[in-house]
Queue: 3 jobs
Job 1
Amino acid sequence: MAVTMNDVARAAGVSLKTVSNVLNDYEFIRPVTKQKVLDAIAELGYEANLTARSLRSGKTRMLGLVLSDLSIPYYAELASRLMTFASARGYRVLVEQSGAEPGHELSALQGPFRQLTDGLLFTPLALDAGTIAAHQGTKPVVMLGEHIADPRFDLVTMKNAEAAAAITAHLLASGRRRIAVLGAASEDTTDSPGLRLNGYREALKTAGVEFDPALVVQCDWRRDGGASAVGSLLDDGTEFDAVFGLNDAIALGAMHELLIRGHKLPGDVAVAGFDDIDEARFASPSLTTVSPGMEEIAERSVKLLIDRIEGAEASSEGLHVEAGFELKVRESAP
Amino acid sequence: MAVTMNDVARAAGVSLKTVSNVLNDYEFIRPVTKQKVLDAIAELGYEANLTARSLRSGKTRMLGLVLSDLSIPYYAELASRLMTFASARGYRVLVEQSGAEPGHELSALQGPFRQLTDGLLFTPLALDAGTIAAHQGTKPVVMLGEHIADPRFDLVTMKNAEAAAAITAHLLASGRRRIAVLGAASEDTTDSPGLRLNGYREALKTAGVEFDPALVVQCDWRRDGGASAVGSLLDDGTEFDAVFGLNDAIALGAMHELLIRGHKLPGDVAVAGFDDIDEARFASPSLTTVSPGMEEIAERSVKLLIDRIEGAEASSEGLHVEAGFELKVRESAP
DNA sequence: CTGAAAGCGCTTACAG
DNA sequence: CTGAAAGCGCTTACAG
């Protein structure tokens, strides 16, 4: 029923192979022949059958994206940008939600999902490096995020420690000395909370300001986590002149709580976050934060994966890319 | 290189067709034969080649989802749920971002994207009903949202007017009489703002409260829109004892502005929204709003589309489904 | 209940 | 530069 390459070949008076050559931008083809084929394609409204092409070539021109859940804003924004960059290179992105469950992550790595894609952008949340290495198969995989830092894998991530140090330095430069840190879980340097806390401590050391553990509060990386964390500091009577939320949600929650309790921002307390989500710009006061280069993460991970798929990136070792960051100074901490 | 059905057939000592029968749950097959095939599959680690299956059967087991941008939280949450429901029926979801541009919407409707999917979940934002009807092709399409209400199409949407009336009635029942409405654009009944404003007016009429146009403020459906809209009411000296934001972002922005200006919530002003986004629960005070049944929208649209694809839904007319809604009474308007 | 054959629409060596 | 042929791995009539 649909128009096939055979129909085009017949209409153009050439062989199948010639049509294929035109379609695949084969170099050595006479302009006249090419034009005949192009005309036939236009006239018949021919569209290549992607499934047939995939079956024969073994390529689907799809990238798999494995993440926990699209309803988490960070992943949704990342997915959106990845799709845009992939599309610019002629690829589509097929998303698989793992719910951060090991079983789901594993089946995304080796199940039918894998067949449908030429390569994987993988956010490992539940699986460890060894398991992934054992099941990653032969198609390229690029890791996203900081949970896996293993030389065997390609990895694209952000400068957590450096960015946290930069924003802490900014608060220090504006004269703040007692900077509360909300959202730190541990000093385990392999995950984001640990890396960001380390950056904070590094900046203090550089400025010659002593680290005070009383200013470090553990909390959920959510708006209400930040609100109750800053609330507990206030209730305890701990003194502070600035708050660094380890992500924007925490910082926004803290800001809200401070405002409700009658504190002036940034007069009494300066507030800074991390992530530069859309909301940060629209908050009142607008939130000073650090943009961890999501755009760059998206661009470079797509480029790396496609280069692997197409054989343009030949290095046999895992490549580690760290996107740059940018300080966004706004009203909450000028 | 990969294990094929032929390998399985050989290992099990049966023909290709018999393997295919087992794979496709054909009824009339001897248990012994079936077991032999199953054993061979397990032993060889056979996995069906989905591309070959698609080429032959003409089905991809993928649903296309066309929306403006995944970075918009409402769409991201919807996409997440759609994927979950589709997955339960053995389908995947392939997302295409249109940017709400007519050209992109059109190419999603008829371009190569269409080939890759068995049916479309389509959020028409830029295209009108006539254009869609002319280009929708032969595969099923289910419309999402209220921009297109045309008997030719299957449509799954929410009860905008009824839900808005319910939340207005709730504010009235708590004794509020001057309820500001933020975000109304027009009374055009075909889009969400118009439908929700109509619901508000309907509830006023039922309660015998006169409608005051001075309480209706137009603004962007965003946090800062709500903040500046309520700000302008305060600046003008317009009196009001409640605010109904036509979506949660507006309501949250208004709430923030009211708090900053020293108003007590809900003492001085009750605030209500629409959408029940995650943030509404975590705001302080938590936001009274209406949940428009996104779960149900996702479930029923996936069911309708798959039933169309599989021929289980035979009605030739467009089916119109309206999901139920649920009032979420919280602190901001008890 | 099962088999042998055709064919979905392409790309890819292989010739020329 | 172009053609004729094979084949990617399935499903689907068609027989029996």
Job 2
Amino acid sequence: MKKKTSKKVLTAKTPPPSGEVGRGPYSFFADVFDVVRQIPKGKVTSYGAVAAYLGTKLSARMVGWAMNAAHTAKPKVPAQRVVNRNGMLTGKHHFATPTAMEELLKKDGVTVKNDTVVDFKKIFWDPSEALAL
DNA sequence: CTCCTGACTCAGC
DNA sequence: GGCTGAGCCAGGA
């Protein structure tokens, strides 16, 4: 079974996005920003988690793409708290400096080693659970 | 208007 | 158990 791919669920998950749909008449970017901004300090989440919350889990790429705009969005969005499913700082290269991301995370109390969040699973913040629609 | 790229993820070999 | 291919949506040229 290769590692714990179980995670949550792939096929039979995705809660009914019925109630959240009407909550964001804005672009999909606004939704991402809103969720990311609600990430508690010292916690991190993954693109897929946000994507799943928005109902676009099939397109986690768009979440990352939205983060690109987050860099210019206001107020600033803690994009450093958003990493890939492995906890690796994939987007650190897009920050002002290649070390800005891990620096910010460290300031938040998150341990980063080798461009990867330590105990990522432990400090993982699930929007679907936190926001609980 | 059409083609390509992109900070991901899953399934297949 | 690691690498490759394909899918997704949106924005830029």
Job 3
Amino acid sequence: MDATVQARLDEFISRRGLRRTAQREVIVSEVFSKDEHFSADELFERVRTSAANTSRATVYRTLGLLVAAGLLREIDLGDEQTTYDPNFLDKPAHNHLVCIDCGRVVEFEDAQLENLTACMTRRLGFEPIRQSLKIEATCEQLRNQGRCANLIAARLSGKRLRKKR
Amino acid sequence: MDATVQARLDEFISRRGLRRTAQREVIVSEVFSKDEHFSADELFERVRTSAANTSRATVYRTLGLLVAAGLLREIDLGDEQTTYDPNFLDKPAHNHLVCIDCGRVVEFEDAQLENLTACMTRRLGFEPIRQSLKIEATCEQLRNQGRCANLIAARLSGKRLRKKR
DNA sequence: GTTATTGCAAATGATTTGCACAAGG
DNA sequence: CCTTGTGCAAATCATTTGCAATAAC
């Protein structure tokens, strides 16, 4: 876990008079063990392997704390569950490309884009706070080569690729 | 209701062997009676005033049909319910500015923006299918004048302005 | 008459919450 | 000890679905 994250977390814990519990330790270290997006349920499964106790409720409650502490971001990829992004302290990107073939998510940022939208927002009489662009796209690779590594991986892991409806 | 909408709907009904029922007539005419966004529940309430029978289930099922027919678009404004947009045949905008003070939603389109994102998507190795930009912003009017007509209206109508969580 | 449609109530599924018990400081 | 945190099960809430009754065509 990054030192900045650790420091911010410590500050948050003492400022709010929170307590350090075994469950939180496990959840937090699991959250920041990778840079990848995850759902509450995926995290719950990961946490279970290290700490067989720890309830779903605690996972949800801890996620809420981390979001409140500004260490984790909730993003909405258009499916039925909230996605969490543990890796944004150093990159303020809120733009996502979601591949509708394989479910792969690419995060990116673009200064030109930010400028453009900020101008437009002001022109409409508002002050921009945050923005998120979601691009749904298909794999060139899948179309050209007939296969896509991400698709195969996604199927193997039983990932739900589209909205159920 | 627009003639194009009517024609497309007729075509869809016959192509799929659907039936014309009183409930559908009411729901469809209510959907296209205004250009504004609405939630399933708001529509259900509106429909109730004309046709006191008509269940929620039928409203949901009819919304699904209209989306399948390409006459209605589902959009995700980040709250807990799906928003529907009845007015997009003539304007292919999928970009929304949501005012976090008053909940007002402004739709807009911008060719420069579309170009920019399409380029970026291709550069990343994907083919863009659709995109949506959501900007959350605050009212200049509220900040400068201390009040905002939309906010007052929203409060009067009991609209939920933010995510409940 | 078939087959699509409806209303109702029950099912879903992610997330939240009330509560009694457990544990940090 | 005094609060905060936890697990559990029950509650939410938008949306979906099974089913028997009903209505198009």
